[in-house]
Amino acid sequence: MDLGIEGRTAFVAGSSQGLGYACARSLAREGVVVTLNGRDDAKLSAAADVLRDEVDGARVAWVAADLTTATGRAAIVATVPEVDILVTNNAGPPPGRLDDWDEEALVGALLANTVPAVQLMRAYVPGMRARRFGRIVNITSAMVKSPAYDMGLSTSARAALTAISKSVSNDVVGDGVTVNNLLPERFDTPRQEFMVQRMMTAQGIDRDEARRRIASTVAAGRLGRPEEFGDACAYLCSAQAGYVSGQNLQLDGGSYRGIV
Asked: What tens digit of pLDDT does each residue of 232-245 get?
């Protein structure tokens, strides 16, 4: 299927690796001009080289900037003043417990996982509305719908983004701008490797056993492949998805037990 976005421009936050990179790769495959983002210039340059190797004719640039800071976001917008597609993404805070979630931790989670996405929307939505085309995809978490205790800090910040995104989606869809969220669970990424290492330490098991135990919690019996996630993102950014907005799409191997 031709997704009808060849020649469009995209900014993908947190995209030097993991799910952000997977989204950038899928968009580049559709002919989208992609700008990668992260904090490490060398890592971004290497990721851009890999993307060009993986996708013939890929048009890719990058901007090294910390999107959790106003200075970083200003640098992003100065480098990429207009985009048709915005994919927001950032690593979540570490697992913890109620005793860990003091005011500093709560504010830090919001500054990492809510504020950057909202401020980037504020920067890019006016241009999208004027051009009558825009696609915004926020990478959040499956735990927005089914929270786990130790991930409560991450979940709360992402739930806040979910709520404000729904509010924004109602206002902008009439101008051809959609806002949707992707809710991943158990994808084979560096973030999942962190969880594997954590389980190894906590339970005294080897890496293969840790991965097996994590995969066993997924209804599909396996970890998700990043390219599956990236292609779902590309569809939500497509011309065909103009009637899909304000939605939370779970990519969790069928694990969610609810019906809504």
From this structure: 999 999 999 999 99
